[in-house]
Amino acid sequence: MMFPLVLDLAADGVPVAVTCRVLNFSKQAFYKWKSNPVSVRDWEEAHLINAAIDVHADDPAFGYRFIADELNAGDKTVASERRIWRLCSANGILSVIHRKRVGGRKAGPPVHDDLLKRDFSAAAPDTKWVTDITEHPTAEGKLYLCAIKDLYSNRIVGYSMDGRMKASLAVAALAHAVALRSPSVAVVHSDRGSQPGFNWS
Fold it and tell me: Where does the Integrase catalytic domain lie (predicted)?
């Protein structure tokens, strides 16, 4: 926007009419902006940026899609996903997890070794656990459930719930299972989900 430049030049003694003519816009447009220099859209986007920064600070693993989900968690859509992407990109609000996508290539190797070797049977309780996160829509927004299942008994031995899918959700579920079962040695296996440090065994 060139209107602030008109103000700066006017302060240096350059007539407003001359600057507007050179920059090819009307004096009326300049004076309209001067009476209300911050547009409604600029005001809205400033609030969206602040809200996105708050969500991202809560969990730096969040990218623009999760941030958009959080901002639109109520009954009313605050902003489109594309608008959130534009604002996040322009302001450097990026997920700390970066995945390079190359067309036609399969996903890379697992973050951790698959200690189960795809063997989902167990000879004793609390030796092999599997975990996953599921999303459940509710009247008040999305609810995420992380559950840990013992492969020997096929029973849920720990879980946690949260309105946001963040790393602490998986950590809380594991802590709950350990507190309840106190395993001496247990392998915890998960798929290649979005929670860093909690992929594979």
Answer: 121-201
Per-residue pLDDT reduced to its tens digit, 111-145? 566 777 777 788 888 888 888 888 888 777 788 88
Nearest-angstrom CA–CA distance, 2 and 33: 11
Exposed e or buried b for every residue in 179-188, given b needs 16+ CB within 10 A? eeeebeebeb
> Residue 144's beta-bridge partner residues?
135, 162
pTM of the model: 0.45
- Helix-helix angle 81-90:40-58, to 10 degrees: 80
pLDDT tens per residue across span 17-27: 998 888 888 88
Query: Residue 44, SS3?
Result: helix
Class of residue 63 by CB neighbours under 10 A (exposed 0-12, middle 13-18, buried 19+): buried
- Gap between the Cα atoms of 191 and 170, Å rounded: 12
Joined tokens for residue 112: 């951790």
